[in-house]
Design the sequence.
């Protein structure tokens, strides 16, 4: 690990000031500490947010539900109001990481978690995300590691997170704080596809910190499911995942959200799948048709996993919407 | 009787409270900290090493490279050639890079943090050559043959034949305790704390490489946090640390990172198995052909010829086996739990299940029908062989009679259910010569000493039970001391034979002590015993005297000696996602006499757990374009979690086999894994109708076949 300056922020404005001066924010530390030790992250300055009380406040009864960025994954996953209003969000948390990590990791940090691509993580293979211009070792590596949506010649790394997928499906917004003030960003617009600049992973500006996540209630948020396909029962990133939310009236789907995880370089909303579902009865056949629409033209282990995840999430969301 | 009682491990409290000190827990005064730098290319030459940034960091004491080591170490031999080393090729002997992740420098600093920082700052440049790692990228014409044999002169024509290819991936041990070393010199004497399965092999290997007398080297490993074969041999970083400690005149301790563990030691090589079975339409096996290819390194030819095991499972009149290895740009592969049995048994037991499906014969009945009366390879009699009993009892405990044999015929709550079974066998190895010293002191405490190793299995507890019964003492009065090279001669803890071999020496020492006490001798009394297994040839005696490893195999003294088992697995497959769960496994084992049912059960459950992992998730991915393991940490290499292992029921027949050793024990360390893998994949076939011949099962394979 390289030496760095460490600042413990006492307030959000102190944290924003430090971040604006170039400091890397530290929240739960479950990703950053690992990256520091591997010298994949080499910040000159780290600002520790964990003593900023205003980032810990959360209210899941309000409309929209407001979740402070420092809320732990474990705490939010255990909240009964969340489970009732946003079951897919809770499922995405329960299926993520391990119990120990969920106790440490924060909501804001989870959204900005770093790539799990082996070329990025090993600290030395060519990786444009870690070392811009160095190339992409993953492109010629195992297909298992390849995203199938949103890739570029510079980067094929799948976005590994689960929570962001469920939040996009729930029409959540991200409230940020920066020297310029407060703004809200749709969760769907937080992450950037790699394009030619994979090192720029999100749209947050210098000094801009996630303050809270806002989740509006509603039928597609309530009748929602998150499904994660992976090779073991716990403590594994998804091969493919999906969050699906449905609004059903008189047996027909009148609104749908279909978002894919771990199969694209960012949480990937599939309008194609949604339009397959809207106006139809949700059956095993339409669920599969939605999955095929979402993954049209793709192949490989991640695409197959995501296909299964979309299908199953559609069926589970439908049962939550009262479709029998 | 202490033998047969389910005693808690003697060191259980010390381990769970953190009192037990593993190699990396030691911190002598003045200790320096080492870290490794490993190569980023798979094949080629180091053209330059710029260590100036690293050396300039405050607290860095040395950056040791091939420039420093050239000519400093003696040539040594790999284990496969009668020596003690993982590979004969010292990674710092010169500028040659033989595989990705090869050690290229050892950094030594005053703190671990500085050493870690400095390791990142060493700039190594290479000239890169073409490299190949994946078995699929090799040409069989370049293979080296390691076994070729046959029984019977002509393949009988059979009505039904299975002729399929099965493949297994590269895998790593990933013991919870990482590789680590602490080396310190006291004058001309070296003391090394290192997790090893073979303290005296480590001692001899270090002495040979460093050019010091064996008596000047002491190796300690009282606690080992899992070995699984990875810690069986001398790893080069151990020698490098000892050399650095001598040069810097200070104790030096090395941690190897999780990622580096995958390339500085051995691994389970990829393998492909073509199996051809011929049988009558009534399900009597006539012929068994098995062709195996596996990876080896370019420096050492390691052939883990397992057909010599699997050929003994069923009665056949004609057997033809050939095993070759393909040299690739890999670290030298080696032992990993059931090294010669896992892949071979997966292939054979899958093929037998395919045969059962084609013949529409129940897979248990098919196996029972082909139980051999004598060893089909040598025609010698078997020792105790109770495979049929394992199959019958396992079927009964599992409820096998309720199985609808048709694939995709069983389901529950939207999930497909499958039931599969497989047979297991593992050689009842004889080990070699073991010595034991037993001392009864004036406080009534009996100290048992032998240079065997407890890898966390409970070996010390089991040996105490044997000693207590033999000497007629209370087991609480017996203290077993293992894991130190100064102790009486012990063996590598490998091949599931510590209880049988060290136990036999301990048993004999106990009897001698009892006789001494009965003669009226009073404490303190010391006795020494020497156990020479039956079947030691003059050549093996010579090997023992040389300090080479001796392992008597399963064919000895006119008999063929194996442990057996039968595993039954239930899988649930989500037909939408292809995810496989294993809610229950039943395993019944004929592993001879069971000294401690608690620790034996733990070993068998552990083996079954690995088998589940091997079936549905474990593999080290390979980047073929770069000839490198891709993702070598536990985020990429999945092993089974609690959530993956449902109800596991283990039954042990507990029938002593006096042909194996005086105690009648066969060993439980590896057999639990052997049949589990095929039991799970056979169950996947039964659930889905999809035959998985390539491990591990991937969800996508089951989904795309919907």
Sequence:
């Amino acid at each position: 690990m390289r030496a760095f300056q460490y600042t413990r922020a006492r307030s959000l404005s102190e944290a924003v000031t430090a971040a604006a001066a170039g400091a890397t924010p530290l929240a739960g530390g479950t990703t950053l500490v690992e990256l520091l030790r591997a010298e994949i992250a080499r910040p000159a300055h780290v600002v520790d947010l964990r003593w900023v009380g205003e980032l810990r406040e959360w209210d899941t009864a309000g409309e929209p539900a407001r979740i402070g960025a420092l809320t732990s994954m474990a705490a939010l996953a255990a909240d009964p109001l969340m489970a009732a209003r946003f079951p897919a969000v809770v499922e995405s948390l329960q299926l993520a990481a391990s119990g120990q990590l969920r106790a440490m990791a924060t909501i804001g940090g989870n959204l900005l978690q770093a790539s799990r691509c082996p070329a990025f993580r090993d600290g030395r293979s060519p990786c444009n995300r870690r070392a811009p211009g160095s190339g992409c070792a993953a492109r010629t590596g195992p297909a298992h590691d390849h995203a199938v949506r949103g890739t570029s010649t510079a980067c094929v790394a799948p976005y590994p997170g689960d929570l962001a997928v469920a939040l996009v499906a729930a029409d959540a917004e991200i409230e940020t704080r920066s020297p310029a003030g407060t703004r809200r960003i749709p969760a769907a617009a937080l992450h950037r596809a790699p394009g030619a600049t994979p090192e720029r992973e999100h749209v947050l500006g210098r000094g801009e910190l996630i303050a809270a996540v806002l989740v509006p209630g509603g039928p597609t948020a309530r009748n929602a499911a998150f499904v994660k396909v992976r090779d073991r029962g716990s403590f594994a990133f998804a091969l493919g995942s999906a969050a699906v939310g449905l609004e059903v009236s008189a047996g027909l789907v009148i609104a749908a959200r279909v978002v894919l995880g771990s199969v694209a370089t960012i949480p990937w909303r599939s309008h194609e799948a949604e339009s397959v579902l809207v106006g139809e009865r949700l059956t095993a056949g339409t669920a599969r048709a939605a999955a095929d629409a979402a993954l049209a033209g793709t192949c490989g282990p991640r695409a197959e996993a995501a296909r299964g995840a979309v299908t199953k999430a559609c069926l589970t969301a439908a049962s939550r919407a009262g479709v029998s | 009787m202490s033998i047969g009682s389910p005693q808690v491990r003697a060191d259980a409290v010390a381990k769970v409270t953190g009192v037990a000190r593993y190699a990396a827990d030691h911190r002598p005064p003045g200790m320096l900290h080492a870290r490794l730098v490993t190569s980023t290319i798979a094949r080629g030459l180091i053209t330059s090493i710029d260590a100036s940034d690293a050396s300039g960091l405050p607290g860095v004491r040395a950056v040791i490279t091939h420039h420093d080591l050239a000519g400093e170490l003696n040539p040594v031999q790999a284990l496969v050639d009668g020596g003690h080393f993982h590979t004969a090729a010292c990674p710092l002997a010169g500028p040659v890079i033989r595989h990705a992740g090869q050690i290229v420098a050892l950094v030594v600093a005053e703190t671990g943090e500085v050493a870690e920082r400095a390791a990142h700052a060493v700039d190594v440049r290479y000239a890169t050559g073409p490299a190949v790692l994946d078995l699929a990228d090799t040409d069989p014409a370049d293979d080296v043959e390691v076994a070729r044999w046959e029984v019977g002169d002509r393949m009988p024509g059979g009505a039904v034949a299975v002729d399929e290819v099965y493949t297994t991936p590269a895998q790593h041990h990933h013991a919870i305790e990482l590789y680590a070393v602490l080396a310190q010199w006291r004058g001309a004497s070296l003391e090394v704390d290192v997790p090893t399965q073979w303290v005296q092999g480590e001692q001899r290997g270090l002495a040979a490489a460093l050019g010091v007398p064996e008596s000047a080297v002491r190796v300690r490993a009282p606690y080992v946090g899992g070995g699984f074969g990875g810690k069986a041999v001398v790893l080069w970083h151990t020698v490098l640390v000892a050399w650095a400690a001598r040069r810097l005149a200070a104790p030096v301790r090395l941690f190897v990172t999780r990622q580096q563990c995958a390339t500085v030691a051995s691994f389970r090589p990829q393998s492909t198995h073509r199996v051809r079975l011929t049988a009558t339409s009534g399900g009597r096996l006539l012929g068994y052909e098995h062709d195996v290819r596996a990876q080896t390194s370019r420096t050492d030819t390691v052939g883990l010829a397992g057909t010599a095991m699997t050929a003994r499972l069923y009665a056949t009149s004609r057997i033809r086996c050939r095993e070759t290895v393909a040299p690739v740009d890999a670290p030298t592969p080696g032992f990993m739990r059931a090294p010669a049995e896992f892949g071979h048994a997966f292939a054979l037991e899958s093929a037998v299940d395919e045969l059962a499906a084609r013949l529409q014969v129940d897979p248990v009945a098919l196996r029972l029908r082909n139980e051999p009366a004598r060893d089909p390879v040598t025609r010698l009699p078997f020792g105790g062989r109770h495979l049929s009993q394992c199959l019958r009892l396992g079927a009964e405990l599992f409820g096998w009679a309720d199985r609808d044999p048709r694939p995709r015929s069983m389901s529950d709550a939207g999930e497909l259910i499958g039931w599969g079974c497989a047979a297991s066998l593992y050689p009842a190895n004889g080990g070699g010569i073991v010595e034991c010293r037993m001392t009864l002191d004036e406080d009534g405490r009996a100290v048992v000493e032998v240079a065997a190793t407890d890898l966390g299995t409970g070996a010390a507890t089991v040996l105490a039970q044997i000693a207590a019964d033999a000497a007629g003492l209370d087991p609480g009065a017996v203290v077993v001391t293992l894991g130190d090279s100064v102790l009486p001669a012990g063996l590598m803890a490998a091949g599931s034979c510590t209880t049988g071999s060290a136990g036999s020496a301990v048993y004999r020492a106990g009897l001698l002590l009892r006789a001494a006490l009965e003669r009226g001798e009073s404490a303190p009394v010391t006795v020494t015993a020497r156990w020479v297994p039956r079947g030691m040839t003059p050549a093996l005696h010579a090997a023992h005297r040389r300090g080479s490893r001796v392992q008597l195999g399963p064919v000895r003294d006119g008999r063929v000696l194996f442990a057996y088992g039968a595993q039954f697995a239930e899988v649930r497959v989500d037909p939408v996602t292809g995810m496989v769960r294993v809610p229950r496994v039943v395993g019944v084992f004929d592993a001879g006499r069971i000294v401690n049912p608690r620790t034996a059960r733990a070993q068998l459950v552990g083996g079954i757990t690995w088998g589940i992992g091997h079936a549905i998730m474990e593999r080290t991915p390979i980047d073929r374009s770069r000839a490198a393991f891709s993702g070598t940490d536990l985020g990429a290499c999945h092993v089974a979690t609690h959530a993956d292992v449902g109800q596991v029921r283990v039954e042990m027949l507990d029938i002593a086999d006096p042909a194996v050793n005086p105690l009648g024990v066969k060993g439980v360390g590896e057999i639990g894994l052997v049949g589990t893998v095929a039991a799970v994949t056979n169950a996947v076939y039964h659930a889905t109708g999809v035959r998985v011949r390539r491990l591990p099962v991937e969800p996508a394979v089951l989904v795309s076949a919907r």
In short: Chain B has three domains: 23-130+176-226+231-261, 271-428+557-704, 430-552. The mean pLDDT of chain B is 96. The first helix of chain B runs from residue 12 to 16. The CA atoms of residues 453 and 483 of chain B lie 5 Å apart.
